[in-house]
Amino acid sequence: MCWCQPLEICLRIHRSTTTMRLTAILLCVVCIGAPVTSGAGKDDCQARDFGHGSVVCECNASHCDSAGPVQLPPVGQFLTVLSSKAGSRLARGQGQVLKNSTGAALRLIIVPYQKYQRIKGFGGAMTDAAAFNIRSLSGGAQDQLLRQYFAPEGIAYSVVRVPMASCDFSTRLYTYADAPGDYDLTNFTLSSEDIEMKIPLIQKAQAMSPHPLSLLASAWSAPAWMKTSGALIGKGTLKGHPGGKEYTTWAQYYVRFLEEYGKFNLSFWAVTTGNEPTAGQMTNYSFQALGFTPETQRDWVAMDLGPALHASQFAKTHIIMLDDQRLLLPHWAKVVLSDVHAARYIHGIGVHWYMDRLAPPELTLGTTHHIFPQYFLFGTEACSGWNPADRGVKLGSWERAEDYAHDIIEDLNHYVTGWTDWNLALDLGGGPNWVKNFVDSPIIVDTKKDVFYKQPTFYSMAHFSKFLWEGSQRVGVSSSEPSALESSAFVRTDGAVVLEVLNRSEEHIPFEIWDPAVGFIPIDAPAHSILTVVWATQ
After folding, report:
1. Where does the source fall among the domains of life (predicted)?
2. What was the pLDDT predicted at 8?
């Protein structure tokens, strides 16, 4: 019942059940001394408090707390993994599944016959800024950082988004074909940022990962000479019309990008139709953008991008449309996917999180899935610190970790198949960023000290990326009564059940999980915590 639970859970289990309180306390005495409660890996978190509500874990070339390998407990036992505002970071516990209910008022019921979408994966973006920051560390610290994300002892990121040429998180403006009038792309060439920074780091990450990484490419802007504005930044679209030479050349630009990365043995799972196409329709937009309406995006895919990829060696590379706010759904999807010529080339729909509070998930994601169930939904960008009212890096902000977990659970419960964070690493100022659009990141680098800090958002991501393997299928979960808990349940490819639980409230919440296949799991969600529960069914 309380064997080797994380201490925050252990001291509270059965607190509301008088007859079992003494047993729980006695068992918790054993828990206090159990090594499993001291941390998730061979090294403990070197906690640093910067006054933003919780702690970061400091890492260097020789020391970093590690998620470590995760072994599925035998049938009849369950594994818990806890991160909290109070300071737990992927703290593990293990307990016994019961045959009878504990009588807890709140029960989360697993409904395995209700089957939904399968998981693709979770990850972050290798921007120029991220690569610059990682490379600013010593060789040992660089490897340590990449292991935290990609190695088996890390948090198992499987998706890496790669900007095609510059974005705001670059130190300069550039594309791969800046020579005016180069419609044949004769002078197309990757940048030094690609060859010297991003590609070597992606190669290292791939070498560390036990599985192939799913690379996802997004372009911010076409070369200025192809655009109505004659500039990379601000409002502007491609000259001409779909099927015309600018649109055709822009499609071939994608093919050339894939070819050049292919020379470094890097292949892409997917490309998007372009980052935030609505930004290129805005007056006075401050950084790189390329405007599309849903109609021009539809026709460009149908007439140019789709045929170009299909005729190349990259016919199996997926095309993800939109790559913008979910507020634009379902309208954008209706316009593009109702056209059979465009729809035949498209595989998925990419969404960003920045306007999610204005976009009810059922009206946007849910409706889109029900109309177009054959197209996957995928989170292609998110970050904290983007809002002008709450700008930049906040070392140790637990509120931001909760924002991540809340949005991920909400997305997963509305058919999204994965969620991609923005920059893999930023500096203490939230950059570099040529337009000073500074934000936060799960890892923050302090070059002067040759250390990096793992933010609460890093651990928030870990609860999903580490435990929801590719191919995991979401299943039903219902609650016996209303509560503050947010949850989502999955059956993994190894048959294990994974329940993700977020408690954003000020109170600990005791509850039990009922899986009809195995029995009852007594548990407790501490105040302001993220909890992963895993158990085998056979």
Report:
1. Eukaryota
2. 53
- Rounded CA gap, 360 and 451, in Å? 40
Residues in contact with 163: Cβ distance below 8 Å, sequence separation at least 6, in sequence order:
125, 127, 128, 169, 170, 217, 218, 219, 220, 275
Structural domain span for residue 355: 120-465
Among 465, 482, 509, the domain-final residue is: 465
Continuous segment of H or E residues that includes residue 490: strand 485-491
Q: Is residue 166 part of a domain?
A: yes
pLDDT average per 10 residues of sequence, the chain (538 residues): 46 44 39 34 84 98 94 96 98 96 96 98 98 98 98 97 98 98 98 98 98 98 98 97 98 98 98 98 93 98 98 98 98 98 98 95 98 98 96 98 98 98 98 98 98 98 98 98 97 98 97 97 97 96
Structure confidence at residue 502 (pLDDT) = 98
Structural domain includes residue 449: yes
The per-residue pLDDT for 448 is 98
372 in any annotated domain: yes
Interatomic CA distance for residues 428 and 444, integer angstroms = 6
What is the edge-to-edge ordering of all strands in the sheet holding 91-96? 91-96, 77-84, 529-535, 497-503, 485-491, 473-479, 107-118, 509-515, 519-525
Tell me the two tokens of residue 33: 């001394």
**Domain CATH code at residue 103:** 2.60.40.1180
User: Phi-psi bin for 425: left (phi > 0), alpha (psi -120 to 50), beta?
Assistant: beta
Using the 3D structure, point to which of 421, 445, 465 is the last residue of a domain. 465
Active-site residue, selected from the candidate residues 193, 276, 402, 470? 276
Give me the pLDDT at residue 538, please. Answer: 85
User: Tell me, what's the pLDDT at 27?
Assistant: 41
Inter-residue contact 290 to 251 (CB < 8 Å):
no
Contacts of 322 (CB under 8 A, 6+ apart): 272, 273, 277, 297, 328, 329, 332, 333, 336, 349, 350, 351
Q: Which residue in the list 381, 410, 500, 512 is annotated as catalytic?
A: 381
Secondary structure letter of residue 53 according to DSSP: B
Bridge partners of 474, per DSSP, are: 490
Q: What is the pLDDT of residue 22?
A: 40
Question: Can you say whether residue 396 is alpha, beta or left, with left for phi > 0 and alpha for psi between -120 and 50 degrees?
Answer: left
* Per-residue CA distances from 48 to 21, 388, 396, 488 (Å): 35, 26, 8, 31
Write out the two tokens for 492: 């993994």
Block residue for tokens 């460009």: 300
Q: φ, ψ for residue 479 (rounded to 5)?
A: -120, 140
Which residues pair with residue 423 across a beta bridge? 125
Sheet strands (E) in 282-330: 318-325
| Host H or E run for residue 116 | strand 107-118
402 is annotated as an active-site residue: no
Instruction: Note if 246 is an active site residue.
Output: no
